[in-house]
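Reviewer 2 asked us to include a model.

Predict the structure of this chain.
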Amino acid sequence: MNKIEQMLQELCPNGVEYKKLSDICSLSRGKVYSKTYLSENIGDYPVYSSQTANNGELGKISTYDYDGEFLTWTTDGAYAGTIFHRKGKFSITNVCGLISLKSKDVLIRFLYYWLGIEAPKHVYQGMGNPKLMSNQMEHIEIPVPPLPIQEEIIRILDHFTELTASLQAELQAELQARQEQYEYYRNKLLTFTKIEGQSVTWIKMSEIGEICMCKRIMKHQTNVMAGTPFYKIGTFGKKADAYIANELYEEYKKNYSFPRKGEILLSASGTIGKAIIYDGEPAYFQDSNIIWISNDESKVLNKFLYYYYQIAEWKTEGGTIKRLYNANLAKMKIAVPTVSEQHRIVAILDKFEALVNDLSQGLPAEIAAVQEQYEYYRNKLLTFNRLN
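Predicted model (structure tokens):
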């Protein structure tokens, strides 16, 4: 029997009383703060909104509406039901709710942890805009164990929270250090004057091979259900959200330009210069926005080209929406060392990239494992027998 179980047995052997949130707290809403108001009244006191980035802070102004210790919750949008613990002087927008204690039987930090579990369960998903209004919040039932039990639960969960945050900061710092080291050596290796006494050759991209793109796919030829993944500029390098019929893919792949395994796909709009190594798996790519150089690797290794793209200075055209046109890419010049030297450079950069990727892939998994462990113990600690 752990300490919490012992305390429950001693202090409330018959179970824990539950009360509605409205019985122990007062609920209210924030008010509208325009961007103009925020920019014209800059000060020291935060204004919190429905966002979760930056701890929900929208900006800082010279006045405040609240002073003390409260909980806030997001009432609208994708983050509806998110709970924050606020201290000090601050204001909130109209898409935030404020929870202030009116009972001495509940500690606000205990309430914070409980609502972190329960509030998202009460979000209403109707009409495409998730909402959690005060009339829904006030009916959430809150367990009210004796204060010593609440204090012990808070102590344990605060410790878990600190450990999780510390681990995340440590791993992110390591990732940042490796990324900076990788970029330093990549830039140094790909900045050429002479290599071991031999001059590099400067050639135009058009001398490497033909600049290609897939045949155009019309919107009515796509679906969101099944088939061959179709990558648009918005999903390039991510997960496809559209598909084309397998038969159409086979036909277009056979009769029109299509990349070979290992060739480097390049974003010509949006995130210009983003490069992906084509893995040879069935996929189709948006014409003119995703291009590649058909390369037999007689002059330039595909993998060397991939790394070069990461430091290239792209000549783009257009107004608000910039583009990398084929003609501009064709005229670009690249410094090309010998093929053997390219192999050496690629081998070094592959090792650095592997180090970065190992951590960047492992970090989310490790954080997720810690988070799952935290949630398991949090839920276990906040499970009570109800007093009949």
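The mean pLDDT is 90. The longest strand covers residues 83-92. We have added this to the supplementary material.
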